[in-house]
Amino acid sequence: MTPITEVDGRRVALSNLEKVLYPATGFTKGELLHYYATTSGVLLPHLRDRPVSFLRYPDGPEGQVFFTKNVPPGTPEWVTTAEVPRSDGAARMVLVQDLASLIWAANLVTEFHTHQWLVRTPDEADRIVLDLDPGAPATVVQCCEVALWLRERLAADGIEAYAKTAGSKGLHLLAAVRGASSERVSEYAKELAVAAERAMPRLVVHRMTRSLRPGKVFVDWSQNAARKTTATPYTLRARREPTVSAPVTWQEVAECRAAGQLAFRAGDIMPRVQDHGDLLAPLLDAERAAALP
Predict the structure, then answer these.
(1) Half-sphere exposure (CA, 13 Å, Cβ side) for 97?
(2) d(CA 130, CA 193)
(3) Which of 56, 36, 44 is nearest to 95 (CA)?
(4) Contact indicator for 27, 266 with CB cutoff of 8 Å
(5) Segment (H or E) for 31
(6) What is the per-residue pLDDT across 109-146, written as a single tens digit (0 to 9) for each?
(7) Using an 8 Å Cβ cutoff, are 278 and 45 in contact?
(8) What are the CA-CA distances from residue 97 to residues 82, 103, 114, 166, 271 (Å)?
């Protein structure tokens, strides 16, 4: 029998709580739900008002992994949905606005991925993201070196950047922006990636071509396209272990000398939140958003 729990007055069906999703650590679905419930205070603000794509892995990362962009069948009527523009016509997507919706979505076993724009202003980007992806033998250590250069370059344009781990191999840089379309933000992000490659040609590549990437950091600027999404801060990832896309301090970035220093799992996050609060909270302050040069 599927247990029913009440979350903020909503009845939410939970299933297979003892199912092991991450065999390497024995991390269960019940623990996944507990993680999302306990981190909801910092996670929800980064989800709210953003159409969500779910990267689902109901049988764990070693099972079938697939994206769900449209509203899934069986979505409760109290979950907020919205019509969003797409190149092939409008579609209806989920908005995770509250704790009940978060727990319902987490029960699907999912990574949360969000656009760089809000549902009320799909034509205007409110964030810029640079996805730093290392090509072996490069690791997050090299990503940190590139991130520090990009931070200074963005600061020169009056844009304050923040960092989080990808929850896999790399690093994400985020900044709050205003007054520009996704197309313009993409152009600016590409300019940054090209500038980084020129400044550090032995370390950086701005093109996705696989043959160019071994030993270098690919600065993926394309995630700023309106149609694309990026892993939401604090989401669990479908990896071998329950790693998290976790915000990090610039001191941690500067002091990173080994890949393991910036590998955070579900159990690491709440102690970090207690110590630092939400390191990405400034992204939510519209008054701190910068105009592109």
Answers:
(1) 11
(2) 8
(3) 44
(4) yes
(5) helix 29-38
(6) 999 999 999 999 999 999 999 999 999 999 999 999 99
(7) yes
(8) 12, 11, 13, 23, 24
